Amino acid sequence: MIDIAITGIGVMSPMGVGREAFWENCRKAKTGIKKITSFDTSTLQSNIAGWVDDFDPSQFMSPGVYRRMSRISRMAVASSVEAVKDSGLILDTIDKERVAVIMGTAYGSSSHVEDFYMSLLRDGPRGAQPFLFPETVPNAPASHIAMFHAITGPNTPFCQNEISAENAILYAQNLLSQNLVDVVLVGGADELS
After folding, report:
1. How far is CA 113 from CA 64, 118, 128, 141, in A?
2. Most C-beta atoms within 10 A of its C-beta, which of 6, 17, 31, 41?
3. Phi/psi zone of residue 118: left (φ > 0), alpha (ψ -120 to 50 degrees), beta?
4. Does position 8 have pLDDT exceeding 90, yes or no?
5. pTM of the full predicted structure?
């Protein structure tokens, strides 16, 4: 049996951006549930949700890196930056073919999917926004993490609704147990839309 340890944590959550802020808000029993202001909720039965409102991607990467990423991909990459920093790992000293990126997401970037298909319906095939399309696939957050860190090992998304992140963690554990990789960046990400 191989010993497996969680060595770093990265959090982008309605309860706080970063592990320390998240934990402090948990200790104070604060809630991340608040009124939705990012889109019109007048036709919905609820106007509250848990969403991250104080996330600034420029704290984690340059605008040239994140400008074509969806918000969910930006937060996933930022979480990976936080987790790597928290772990103390120096990825440049590790064989990156033995590092995996495993991400769970129920829907991926649903806002980009909506924007892309609305442009397709509104403007037809020639008018559809091509820069939105790469973010419509659920593997985009995992791919951006791998590209950001230059990781060339296994890269797998899990899209199984509410248990996506849990299955990603289980798969990561299997990869480590079978000695297929030495390090796994694993997590889950979804967005409010």
Report:
1. 22, 8, 11, 14
2. 17
3. alpha
4. yes
5. 0.91
